[in-house]
Amino acid sequence: MIKDKNGFTSLEVLIVLMVSAVLIVIWGVSRRSQISATYLREADVLLSDIINKENIAKDADINAMYSNVSRSSMTKLVGGIEVIDGRKYLYFREFEVTDANASSFIATVYGVDGTVAEGATVKIKYENGQKIPIL
Predict the structure, then answer these.
(1) Domain tally for the chain?
(2) Which H or E element spans position 40?
(3) What is the DSSP letter of 63?
């Protein structure tokens, strides 16, 4: 006589738990890389904003560019052109422009404390119309 089986054996439950654990680890790692990519995209947007405002100021022949701006999240006007408002960014609000001259400058953006970007800095050199990442 064949006995009816009800439920799962402990081996089957163990296999399901192991597969689930592996899938959760894979999901967690991919999620972390997506978050990193997101905040780095925001840093790139802020750097592009700085570059665009520098070019507008240069094209308008305004002497009050962001030349050698100390670390800040600026919200005022310079020469009638809106200065970057760091408050609209979630992960990067403070920036600094150094070594600025007529054709190049170095821009650094800083991660906001208490976010995933805390302690992160992204730095580029803008020279003759090209962004050059600085590691």
Answers:
(1) 1
(2) helix 10-59
(3) S
Q: Is 7 exposed, middle or buried (0-12, 13-18, 19+ CB in 10 A)?
A: exposed
pTM value surpassing 0.70: no
The residues facing 134 across adjacent strands are 123
- Which domain covers residue 25, as residue numbers? 10-134
Q: According to the 3-state scheme, what is the secondary structure of 64-124?
A: CCCCCCCCECCCCEECCEECCCHHHCCCEEEEEEECCCCCEEEEEEEECCCCCCCCCEEEE
Query: 83-109: per-residue pLDDT in tens?
Result: 777 778 888 888 888 887 777 888 888
Cα distance between the two ends of the chain: 73
Q: Which residue type is seen at 33?
A: S
Hey, what are 17's tokens?
A: 């738990």
Burial of 122 per CB tally in 10 Å (0-12, 13-18, 19+):
buried
**For residue 1, is it within any domain?**
no
